[in-house]
Amino acid sequence: MKAHLLTIGDELLIGQTENTNAAWLGRRLSDLGVEVKRTVTVGDNPDTMRAELERAVRQADFVVMTGGLGPTHDDVTREVLAETFDAPLRTDDEIMDRIRRYYEQRGHQMPPSAPQLAQVPEGFATLDNPVGAAVGLWYDASDDGCVVAVLPGIPEELKGIFNGSVEPRLEARPHLRAVTHRTLVTSGIGESSLQERLGDLSDLLDDELSLAYLPSTSGVRLRLTAANEDSTAAEQRIDQLTERIRARAGEHVIGTGDVTLEEVLAEQLRAADRTIGSAESATGGLIGHRLTGISGSSDYYEGSVVAYANRVKQTVLGVDPELLDEYGAVSEPVAVKMAAGVREALGVDVGIATTGIAGPTGGTEEKPVGTVWLGYADDVRTRAVRRQFVEDRTLNKQLFATAALDLARRELERHGDAEDWVPR
Amino acid sequence: MKAHLLTIGDELLIGQTENTNAAWLGRRLSDLGVEVKRTVTVGDNPDTMRAELERAVRQADFVVMTGGLGPTHDDVTREVLAETFDAPLRTDDEIMDRIRRYYEQRGHQMPPSAPQLAQVPEGFATLDNPVGAAVGLWYDASDDGCVVAVLPGIPEELKGIFNGSVEPRLEARPHLRAVTHRTLVTSGIGESSLQERLGDLSDLLDDELSLAYLPSTSGVRLRLTAANEDSTAAEQRIDQLTERIRARAGEHVIGTGDVTLEEVLAEQLRAADRTIGSAESATGGLIGHRLTGISGSSDYYEGSVVAYANRVKQTVLGVDPELLDEYGAVSEPVAVKMAAGVREALGVDVGIATTGIAGPTGGTEEKPVGTVWLGYADDVRTRAVRRQFVEDRTLNKQLFATAALDLARRELERHGDAEDWVPR
Asked: Same structural domain for residues B340 and B195?
């Protein structure tokens, strides 16, 4: 199945917004065995949109069109669909009711432009939007041998509709290419080091089995792809490659699929019936934010102290001013004391801490930008490790947080057995 | 001058790499007065590339093609150019010498594929690469009334060649369209409500003056664009539209260009010589994370208490357990007490607080998912406001944080005069 993406928006053309939707859709569709052959971006101009849509429908089996479904005057996607497919717009009463309720619940008056959101071209199915008011659209342009999915441009809405409604519809179709994927999620190792650890894999890899490195600030994912009509054979080849990877870098492989470091840590904490809290300087609250990104995190996460100022490190976390004077805030003893201090201050079982130099200023020869000390404390042990990352502030904050979470994961992995644990 | 971008690479289609080049080129070309009308991405397939290149050359005045200029076997851009423009490849001796020196200087042996980098289609000019080995290419396809620039896909190389060689060549051409942009940044109002507030603008807008809404979880940006050869006239039209927008939604306009809510708040706090801290439940540390995204934030941001568990709200922030029993954690008195409590706990001038239901679970009829109470406290006043957002956890956390920061901005705007302030 060959897909074309058609993403709409002047803001994409002039680079005011990065086209993250195209990349996300590309990844998801590839994983589903849909081959993305072309991505086109044009502005909010009905004639151009129509020309591109007609071309895509003619050339592809599946077209995903994004953007231009909002309530404002430059949202013209519905009109373009109506014209292109000769499908007059009608008001969908159910959607209209939902929009009315949406505004009622929020105590807002419905804006006069809102009814536009309930207009649906004749013959189009609607796709539920779990996040916002604009529904997605689905059309079987059978005459052209093509299916069209239309999604809002707001990334969260697009993802919600894709996962809930587009993916199941695609999976129900027969002519997907037989591609088997597996993703191995790693933690605590960079792309180059991981590649070095894995070494030469050319005896395993070929045209039908490939390995891609997908690095991000939360770790490197490895995507293993086998193309084979026989899915058992494909699975076997992927198993073989997985085995090699685990043999060479096994302690860094924390799971498969979409699993995240935060989820692995959540499982560990739940299993050991322990609570966690963070003491954050350089990460500014990001560790707490990431831990609370998971629904149900209140089972094991109790809170954090962001001690950005040294005064807060002293008053709330009990860091001795003399330690700060002697070693500086970015130091082993301060990281240890912050981790131990947050256990006391919040009454949690495990404390993790960050103190570092995110940059761009504040670096010294001895402690350049990118230096971080990570602290860990539980009821029987404390630990601190120094890591060195990059020059960019935004990246450093993410990398520091990931490293602190990974330190907790490893300590819990190593020492987290129940008998090893002295309850508070 | 109308431009089409043609970006090449399978990794872009399957989303393994984000197409940051397209966004960067879009921004730079727009700033130079070149209108980017379409961006197309296709894979490393010569036939497809040729079809897209021919179409772009036919329709645009200026085509920028990126990618496929490297030394590997799937780098076929040179062959495609040679075929499309009937311009046989020749080896450029000067480039060949440079490549030889490049490897010599680094003490590496020249790879056998390197000579490919010195091949140039007949009639093409070369553009110096200040960063890497692959040169850019420039072709005046005068027969088709089009100019073609070809750049490597590696972002640093692309930027280096664009800035050094493409920009000056473009500026020397007469037919750039005079386009003037201005972005107004708003806060504390959604897209629909903002549109309603702005009302009918059709007396001001036309083909030469347009207004685009760019919504995100940190606010809606408004992009005003005027096309006019006379830049003074363009500025005047944009001023006129700006004036109207400010008259109708002025309290929501917090700045222009790339300014963020966090930066506006930073300016207010610096000007008033005050410090801030946050007490976060539903946002889990995100407010602290966002405030510390700015380098230099330690001048006014001291820290946060993430009080995810009610016990932490009591012990660290001093929230009375009876308040929690009587009103629940998501309530006006708790939000107020959290904001006041973090002032005490951290010794800061201004406290802001969030307590809400991010979802997907935990909602009730009275307090559905998306409900948040925001608290504000300074030395003379406390305040709490209730807001209702969406159903998605990730979005809610961002929207709650934005709303809390915006509450602080408004309170400081209203009451933040120096004489109004009782120092701690």
From this structure: no
- Chain B closest CA to A284's CA: distance in Å? 5
Domain region containing B83: 2-171
* Stretches in chain B below the pLDDT threshold 70: 142, 174-177, 416-424
Residues B247 and B302 in one domain: no
**Does residue A142 register a pLDDT over 80?**
no
ipTM above 0.90, yes or no: no
Q: How many angstroms away from the CA of B382 is the closest CA of chain A?
A: 22
Q: Which of B256, B285, B312 is the last residue of a domain?
A: B256
Of B304, B368, B395, the CB nearest to A156: B395
pLDDT of residue B423: 44
Q: Do B39 and A12 touch (CB under 8 A)?
A: yes
**Averaged pLDDT score across all residues of chain B:** 92
- If asked whether residues A195 and A306 sit together in one domain, one would say no
CATH code where residue A223 lies: 3.30.70.2860
Chain B CA closest to residue A284: B289
User: Which tens digit of pLDDT belongs to each residue from A69-101?
Assistant: 988 878 999 999 999 999 999 999 999 998 888
Mean pLDDT computed over A16-33: 91
Looking at A126, A143, A171, the residue that finishes a domain is A171
Residues of B in contact with A284 (CB under 8 A): 285, 288-289, 291-293, 297, 301, 304
Is B19–A24 a contact, with Cβ atoms under 8 angstroms apart?
A: no
Q: pTM here?
A: 0.78
Statement: residue A131 has pLDDT above 90: no
**Which residue, chain included where needed, has tokens 């956390």?**
B397
Query: Averaged over A386-402, what is the pLDDT?
Result: 93
Q: Does the beta-carbon distance from A26 to B42 stay under 8 Å?
A: no
pLDDT digits (tens, 9 = 90+) for A167-191: 999 988 776 667 788 999 999 998 8
Task: Verify whether the Cβ–Cβ distance A71 to B196 is below 8 Å.
Answer: no
Measured between CA atoms, the residue of chain A closest to residue B310 is A302
Domain count, chain A: 3
**Within this chain, do residues B268 and B412 fall inside the same structural domain, yes or no?**
yes
Query: For the residues A340-368, what does the mean pLDDT come to?
Result: 96
Contact B38 A16 (CB under 8 A): no
CA distance B402 to chain A (A): 14
Q: Which of A223-237, A399-413, B273-287 has the lowest mean pLDDT?
A: A223-237
